[in-house]
Design brief:
42% of the residues lie in helices and 19% in strands. By secondary structure, the chain is α+β, with helices and mostly antiparallel strands. The strands form two sheets. Strands 3, 4, 5, 6, 7, 8, 9 and 10 form an eight-stranded mixed sheet that branches. It has a two-stranded antiparallel sheet with strand order 1-2. Bound molecules: guanosine-5'-diphosphate and magnesium ion. The site of guanosine-5'-diphosphate has 15 residues, from strand 3, helix 2 and helix 3. Belongs to the tRNA(His) guanylyltransferase family.
């Protein structure tokens, strides 16, 4: 009796659960099953470009806290690119990624059927994978600098119906890096080399045109803006390329970082596979001058999780 009393609280819930299980056809369902219907079917429109952009949360503070170099920290930018490469490895249908500052955009093929085009699945997977890679690869790029708190990234999905929309989106992000980088380069030179306070430097640059900042950098600091690293001026574009060298395994695909001008038509002609009727990676030629370094090219052997 004593024993039975002891087990009563356990037995009761089990019998309660059993009462609430019914059989529908051959399938056993619980009466709770209906809650599944509340899940929103957030399927993205067919036949449109899908862009997922991740952006560092509060990176103004995060970069200060972790002593990022100003205005550009090469290691931190490479860390972002490294994380983006892994995302591209997992999703075969990403044909182009573009990163600058604390953000990365991923462009999926219009026809992709990954996760049945379910928005929340796609967005959460890309964002969480990118974030975990950022943390995992941190020591590789940032050396002894310890992470003092966990970084996070927000993510959004944007759809573009036309190729022109896609080009304009990428041009918008690339124009953004140009505007910010020119300003930041002038600003930090005034502060670090001329000893101006932040307020003074801000006042000196307020309302000025690009030509003024270019001239200021050249005449006061001997800096030819156009000679600064492409990664700082143009951000990083990741493209898939097929190896075309007999020494290499022909089946291998590369993920190649470039710092080219996506605003110009030349880029889209050179990488014509991107807007072709049927996409397949373009050929990799070693003459691509803007390649960061051989070691940064990822050889893709894994395929997507589709
Ligand atoms: N010093 C430094 N800061 C950077 C670098 N990349 C990004 N940041 C910082 O990250 C911020 C990113 O901008 P935004 O996303 O608008 O700001 P958030 O809302 O604070 O993440 C920039 O304003 C910088 O403060 C870098 O390479 N060096
Ligand atoms: Mg941010």
């Amino acid at each position: 009796m004593k024993l039975a009393l002891k087990f009563l609280p356990i037995i009761k819930p089990i019998s309660f659960q059993l009462r609430n299980i019914r059989t529908v056809g051959a399938m056993a369902c619980s009466r709770y099953e209906y809650v599944k219907n509340y899940e929103v079917k957030d399927v993205l429109l067919p036949n449109v470009w899908i862009i997922i952009r991740v952006d560092g949360k509060g990176f103004h503070k995060f970069s200060k806290e972790h002593d990022f170099e100003k205005p550009n920290d090469e290691r931190a930018l490479n860390l972002m690119t490294n994380a983006a490469q892994t995302v591209m490895e997992k999703f075969n249908d990403i044909i182009l990624s573009y990163g600058q500052s604390d953000e990365y955009s991923f462009v999926f093929r219009k026809e992709t059927n990954v996760y049945n085009r379910r928005s929340s699945k796609l967005l959460s997977y890309v964002t969480s994978l990118f974030t975990s890679c950022y943390v995992m690869y941190w020591p590789q790029w940032m050396g002894n600098k310890k992470l003092t708190y966990p970084p996070s990234f927000d993510g959004r999905v944007v759809l573009y119906p036309s190729d022109q929309n896609l080009r304009d989106y990428l041009s918008w992000r690339q124009a953004d890096v140009h505007i910010n980088n020119l300003y930041n380069t002038a600003f930090w030179n005034l502060v670090q080399k001329k000893g101006l306070t932040n307020k003074e430097a801000e006042a000196k640059l307020r309302g000025t045109y690009a030509a003024y900042k270019n001239e200021l950098l050249f005449s006061e600091f001997g800096i030819n803006y156009n000679n600064l690293p492409g990664m700082f001026r143009k951000g990083t574009i990741l493209l898939r390329k097929q190896v075309n060298r007999t020494k290499h395994d022909i089946s291998k695909q590369l993920i190649v970082p470039l710092h080219e001008d996506m605003i110009s038509d030349i880029f889209w002609k050179k990488h014509s596979e991107l807007l072709a009727h049927k996409y397949s990676p373009g050929l990799y030629t070693q003459t691509d001058d803007d390649v960061v370094s051989e070691s940064f090219i990822r050889h893709v052997e894994k395929v997507s999780l589709e």
